Amino acid sequence: MLLLSALLVVGGFWMWDSFTYDGPREAVFPLPQTFANNYENDWGAPRPQGPHEGTDIYAPEGAPIYAVTGGTVTTARGSSETGWNTLGGYTVMIRAAYDAGPVERGDLLYYAHLREPSPLQPGDEVEAGDEIGEVGRTAGQEEGTVQDFPPHLHLGWYEGFGLPGDSRSQAQSGAINPYPLLRWVEGNGGRVVLE
Fold first, then answer.
1. Is residue 2 part of a domain?
2. Cα–Cα separations (whole angstroms), residue 65 to 9, 35, 88, 91, 116
3. Quick one: 171 exposed, middle or buried, by C-beta within 10 A (0-12, 13-18, 19+)?
4. Average confidence (pLDDT) over 189-194
5. Residue 80 belongs to some domain of the structure
6. Is 72 within a domain?
7. CA-to-CA separations, 180 to 12, 97, 155, 177, in angstroms, rounded
8. pLDDT above 60: residue 11
9. Which of 22, 83, 123, 171 has the highest CB neighbour number within 10 Å of its CB?
10. Number of domains in the chain
11. Containing structural domain, residue 57
12. Domain containing 122 — which CATH number?
């Protein structure tokens, strides 16, 4: 069993966070491998709300979405109890339980535009490859709104336990471009077993 502890900055205050993880240490592509070529590096692309902070992977509505790493489900900032937020629709956010290639323990992986609310709740633990939702087209002010854009998974990646001045982020929000992470997993056959 791996016991993880770290100092977090929450609302400007330092707090101690510890959690355990005893599952396999792996990293997986977040959609079935047949969709591994359905994305490009769209980091920073213009959007009405500002530069794009993620990578969109296109797949048919209802395609399963998998956790990239093992970790703990947490609430994405601005999301309701069902995981709804205006930009991402139905969402899931998972705090990585271990280092996996470019992902560091404590980083947050954000999965958006799910077809419906995920059955996962904050505090639930997942393993890499667990199904966490389905590809959809949700977003907007009203919960359950389906948009006209093509169905896709928006994968976001946010720095977790970074200390001030030690940032890997390319954005004020703490976002990191997930494109290199996806290429790393894809380049290793879609599943990487870690030592």
1. no
2. 30, 11, 15, 11, 12
3. middle
4. 92
5. yes
6. yes
7. 30, 20, 12, 7
8. no
9. 83
10. 1
11. 24-193
12. 2.70.70.10
pLDDT digits (tens, 9 = 90+) for 15-70: 345 556 788 899 999 999 999 999 999 999 998 888 999 999 999 999 999 999 99
In a domain, 66, yes or no: yes
SS3 per residue for the chain: CEEEEEEEEECCEEEEEEEEECCCCEEECCCCHHHCCCECCCCCCCCCCCCCCCEEEECCCCCEEECCECEEEECCCCCCCCCEECCCEEEEEEEECCCECCECCCCEEEEEEECCCCCCCCCCEECCCCEEEEEECECCCCCCCECCCCCEEEEEEECCCCCCCCCCCCCCCCEECCHHHHHHHHHCCCEEECC
Strand partners, 73: 94
Task: Please give the model's pTM, rounded to 2 decimal places.
Answer: 0.88
